[in-house]
Predict the 3D structure of the following.
Amino acid sequence: MKLKLTLTLAALSGLACVLPIGARDNQVGVKTNLLYDATLTVNAGIETSIAPKWSLDLSGNFNAWTLNDGKRWKHWMAQPEARYWLCEALHGHFFGIEAHGGQYNIGGTNADFTILGTDFGKLKHSRYQGWFIGAGVTYGYTWMLGRHWNLEAEIGFGYSYTRFDRYPCANCGTKLESDKTHHYVGPTKAALNLVYVF
């Protein structure tokens, strides 16, 4: 029974790549990540196909706001990505290789969780200011909503190297540690993009 179900799903997935489901000649899209929008992080991305099953994506975001009670989540980041599409560029399932880099000034936030050895609970009593660079792998899926609109979901996992200075709280200026490093392994991308395709 499981084998029949697996073969049926594989056949339907392959059929979806062959059937004319509104394929477009337009191969450039601009996008915004709705998850970043929800955190008031200004963001934008652009993606263009470079072959029938390959595309290049470049996204960036910027948050310069100081929140209530001295909480900070300031940062900027750029994230280029090469994507391989199982059907056609800008439609269906894709896998990607991404790089990321940027700067941050974060502290005074109550994020009481740990991911693979990185303790985000330390952000409650300290402010961290520094830069990061890294890379990862991604998986996503794009739904065609209409002639020009897509909805895209994506998740990424990878590595980031960061170098930072640590301060005692979000409002204080006395430096506790200088030029420290940290190696992060875990989620590096989460996106729910609304895409306009030209």
